[in-house]
């Protein structure tokens, strides 16, 4: 399953893991995604939303 926010499209960031001896290997920073039920077009739908969008109020939760 893709690690992507359904609202803003935020995905993984890429970089390097660097040890004390400066050995370099690849790593990923994954977005903080939460699975919620939200209203989309008047019907409840399950979305994977990043916590930044959730905190900003870009989505309305269904209880």
Description:
This protein is mostly beta strands and 63 residues long. The protein has one domain (1-63): Ribosomal Protein L24e, Chain: T (Roll), CATH 2.30.170.40. The chain contains one helix and four strands; from the N terminus they run E-E-E-E-H. The chain has one helix spanning 51-56, and strands spanning 13-18, 24-29, 33-40, 43-50. The strands form two sheets. Strands 1-2 form a two-stranded antiparallel ribbon. Strands 3-4 form a two-stranded antiparallel sheet. A hairpin with a 2-residue loop joins strand 3 (33-40) and strand 4. It is elongated, with a radius of gyration of 16 Å.
Specify the number of helices: 1
What would you give as the CATH superfamily? Answer: Ribosomal protein L28/L24
Q: What's the helix-strand series? A: EEEEH
Question: Pairing-aware structural class of the strands and helices?
Answer: mainly beta
CATH fold name, please? Ribosomal Protein L24e, Chain: T
Beta content: 35-45%
Largest sheet: 2 strands, antiparallel
Topology:
Blueprint: E1 13-18, E2 24-29, E3 33-40, E4 43-50, H1 51-56
Antiparallel strand pairs: 1-2, 3-4
Question: What would the keywords be for this entry?
Answer:
63 residues, mainly beta, Ribosomal Protein L24e, Chain: T, two-stranded antiparallel ribbon, 1 helix, 10% helix
Sum this structure up briefly:
The chain is built from 1 helix and 4 strands.
